[in-house]
């Protein structure tokens, strides 16, 4: 994904988070949220800085309410870091940029450890009719 922030849409949301192969940091936001707009430049800067360590994505919770519900998002902005599809860190609200950056870096660090201990499940059923 590089330093771009991917806008996750529809059926690809869960698949993208599960199959990334490395940590995924997701911002849950709405277009009308003033705090979301305030932290967006910080999130974009972090995506550039940390692009070698994690993928960065956004989900508009007004358009994808089921994704917000499934991940337990109760307010925006919410920043969640995932490892193998499982959340390993979350930060809610428009935090000071330094605090947000440190929380996300810590979560990415936990993700690396999580990924090294995770075995992907193979859902292919060879030999079954």
Structure characterization notes:
The protein is an alpha/beta fold and 129 residues long. The protein has a domain of 88 residues: 3-Layer(aba) Sandwich (Glutaredoxin), CATH 3.40.30.10. 38% of the residues lie in helices and 22% in strands. The chain is built from four helices and five strands; from the N terminus they run E-H-E-H-E-H-E-E-H. The protein has a five-stranded mixed beta sheet with strand order 1-3-2-4-5, with helices on both faces. The protein is globular.
Identify the notable features of this structure and list them briefly.
4 helices, 129 residues, 5-stranded mixed beta sheet, Glutaredoxin, alpha/beta
List the helices and strands and how they pair.
Elements: E1 5-7, H1 12-18, E2 24-29, H2 34-49, E3 55-60, H3 65-70, E4 78-83, E5 86-92, H4 97-116
Parallel strand pairs: 1-3, 2-3
Antiparallel strand pairs: 2-4, 4-5
Rounded radius of gyration (Å): 15 Å
Structural class call reads alpha/beta
Q: What order do the SSEs take from the amino end to the carboxyl end, as H and E?
A: EHEHEHEEH
How many β-strands, per DSSP? 5
Query: Any guess at the CATH architecture of one domain?
Result: 3-Layer(aba) Sandwich
* Spatial strand order of the main sheet: 1-3-2-4-5
What's the CATH class of one domain, please?
Answer: Alpha Beta
Biggest beta sheet summary = 5 strands, mixed
* Residues in β-strands, percent: 15-25%
CATH superfamily of one domain: Glutaredoxin
CATH topology group of one domain = Glutaredoxin
- Using the alpha-carbon principal axes, give the shape: globular
Total number of helical segments? 4
Low-confidence stretches: none
